[in-house]
Amino acid sequence: MGDRRSACLLAVAMVLQAAAVLGGGGALLDPRRLEKFVDELPDMPRLRGYGVTDGGALVAGNLTIGMYDTTWKFHRDLPATRVFAYGTSKEAAMVPGPTIEAMRGIPTHVTWVNHLPARHFLPWDPTITNAASELGGRGGVPTVVHLHGGVQHSSSDGHSLAWFTAGHAATGPRFSPPPYAYPNRQPPGNLWYHDHAMGLTRVNILAGLMGAYRVVSPGEEGPLNLPSGEALDRNLVLFDRDFRAHDGALFMNATGNNPDVHPQWQPEYFGSVVVVNGKAWPFLRVRRRRYRFRILNASNARFFRLSLSGGLRFVHVGSDSVYLAKPVSTKRFLVAPSEIADVVIDFAESSSGEAVLSDNAPAPYPGDPGDKAETVAVMKFLIEDEDTEPDTSSVPKALMRHYPKPDAREAAATRRITMYEYTKNGTDEPTHLYLNARSYMDPVTETPREGTSELWEVINLTDDNHPLHVHLAVFAVLEQRSLRRVDEFRDCMVRRNDADACGVGRHLARGRRHVVPRQERGWKNVFKVRPSAVTRILVRFKPLVADDAASPEEEGRFPFDVTTGPGYVYHCHILDHEDNEMMRPMKIVR
Q1: Phi, psi dihedral angles at 312 (to 5 degrees)
Q2: pTM of this prediction?
Q3: Which one-letter DSSP state was computed for residue 172?
Q4: What is the Cα gyration radius of the chain?
Q5: Cα three-residue angle 118-432-435, rounded to 5 degrees
Q6: Where are the beta strands (DSSP E) in 450-532?
Q7: Does the pLDDT at position 49 exceed 70?
Q8: What is the pLDDT of residue 13?
Q9: Are the CB atoms for 167 and 302 separated by under 8 Å?
Q10: Contact present, 288 and 296 (Cβ < 8 Å)
Q11: CA 217, 220, 222, 225: dihedral to nearest 10 degrees?
């Protein structure tokens, strides 16, 4: 958003924080009242997404997972807080939900059951396009589940209009009956599942509807000899929240930035408390050896720039749902909402008995030029000196080098995707955000052909960094280049929505090129689209690797008919933007 709006957001945050210190009524909890590193990091229970016969053969798995209205303790000194949570029962529901471990090539069938109440407990705003508005906000909380990074038929993809309420009393226009089928015919890697109901994603995920999902392949991953086992291979699900001072309830501002336009919608949600695996600023006891951490940013809008104290480094082995070709070592890295960084940390390299994982990314990101964000703790590792077991794990020099390298020459088509932000007249306060100057409900304009790749030139005309997510596909970033005289170009685009007519080539000429971080040069599900720049990505609408089970005529095709069903979408993964129209439908053709 604009510089003036960033300053306004900061001022509002300071006022709210001052109210929190004073306490009372619906005031925010002052995070300084919560002692850090007093709760041990929990590990979500793992659900096996496949079955095993008496003879040891692997077969399709069948799971039933509900969405429950329950409570959760985020901190030792907070009361149990009302949440919406996934679980196999109300008693087992937790935030985040259980981790589903699927086996590559073995289907997982999940029956998602909505047990949510008649009304939402967070302000959802009836003025933006959403499922609840059709029900008057009283017919039950709509929900639908998207497996982010999954390669599945669109009827199981969690289309935002495929929502349903408790008992299927009401369903969306693209509803698909249960169960959802996840073929898992994709490379091993990290995914996550979360709510995706139209216009409600930000409030449903804020309430707690998220969980991790892994596709594993022992035959491919075993020889890598990375740290393994539940104690040494952990998911870290990061997000930020605010709580009310008097009762510890989740806090979301009920007054919008443009209340006469949207009474409750805010452009971004930022909380002052960092939560990992459902606990505020937790600690984890580790030994002096290698550990693997699959770090997911499940925040609504907060970016994390992560670093470790004590000189420790991260060794990246995967990005989003795909392994890298070779490891990449970093001292710090940036992870956007919905991005996943798969890293190895060797605590034997530490000279002290503890290491703090910290964040210093501005919010909103990237903030105003010259701004320096405060460094805040995320969690602490307590390093135990004694280790009775030798560390036999390693990080190999090569990982998955057989994956195809991105090659722009294979693109069958080129598309331009332009990101717009619209504001209230006379202000910098946003009212909605569009892709290609179209709303989500406008007719489909993107119709990629199955079995091909496309070159997308993503033009970001806003002042925000937008994490772009494309359902079904993976993509690779080829180039990022800043626009020159961007105000002139933006004004023309708002009038004409025609990059060629507005001279995009002229505005890109001699524009600064921005280096893509080495750990993000492989195939991804999400990428951070820089403001006032053009990002070129190669989007792959075909399987990343050949499927052993595919017939010759199926080569280059997905293991299901992508042309049927409700279709797919692409969108900004800042949830507050996605919910307010920064999403577009996409129809795959043959």
Answers
A1: -70, 155
A2: 0.94
A3: -
A4: 23
A5: 110
A6: 452-460, 466-470, 474-482, 513-514, 526-529
A7: yes
A8: 40
A9: no
A10: no
A11: -130
Helices (H), ranges, 112-270: 131-134, 201-207, 218-221
Q: Outline where 101-141 has alpha helix (H).
A: 131-134
pLDDT band, very low/low/confident/very high, at 103 (cuts 50, 70, 90): very high
> Which amino acid would we find at residue 9?
L
Determine if the peptide bond prior to 96 is cis (ω within 30°): yes
Q: CA 494 to CA 576: how far, in whole Å?
A: 22
Residue 164 DSSP code? B
Phi/psi region, residue 111 (left: phi>0; alpha: psi -120 to 50; beta: rest), is beta
Residues 8, 430 contacting (CB under 8 angstroms): no
Condensed to tens digits (0 to 9), the pLDDT of residues 266-317 reads: 999 999 999 999 999 999 999 999 999 999 999 999 999 999 999 999 999 9
Q: What span, in angstroms and rounded, lies between the C-alpha atoms of 327 and 315? A: 6
Q: What is the pLDDT of residue 15?
A: 35
CA neighbours closer than 13 Å in the CB half-sphere of residue 149: 28
Backbone angle region of 472, left / alpha / beta, with phi > 0 → left and psi within -120 to 50 → alpha: left
Q: What's the CA gap between 6 and 423, in Å, rounded?
A: 14
Q: 374 by DSSP, 3-state: which? A: coil
User: Which residues on neighbouring strands pair with residue 215, listed in sequence order?
Assistant: 102, 189
